Amino acid sequence: MPRRPSASFLVLVALVGATACGAVRVAGVGGRVTDDPITRTRPGMPPRQTGGPPADPRGPETPRGDLPGPASGTRYAAERRMCRTSGVPRGWVAVAYVEDSQCPARTGADSMATSMVLTRHTGWPRGTELEVCADQRTPSGWERVPREDGVDATACPGAARAGEPTTRLIRRYR
Question: Is the pTM here over 0.70, yes or no?
Fold first, then answer.
């Protein structure tokens, strides 16, 4: 009885065949097929300072769930904007809530801020501090930091009860 090739061997043959033809282009999850290299934010650099060429000079295709606009971006951008009803994706944290006519009103909401501005919390060096909305969970590897200075009460409307700070400070410890 002849022996059947393993699944990993068949995948290897398919990949070799696909790359040999030269017409195969791969798109990342939620992205689109382009010839441009993916530009990622380098760890330790402030948001919007990236190495290499822009991700797509024709304008990025909005990843699923993102809203078009200045805070939206490509898959590896430092910031993106989504409706608050969507929930926060893994690896991101809300840093502001803003009004947006493209987002549905939240039931029982005490604020007209229907959209959230998100920033990535992964890839930052130890000691980095981020000001996040008070109702966000503290990501793994981060800790809450006591506040000594004034708090911006307008950054995340509806994130806390009346009279309480709407933002809090977190610091990366690992």
Answer: no
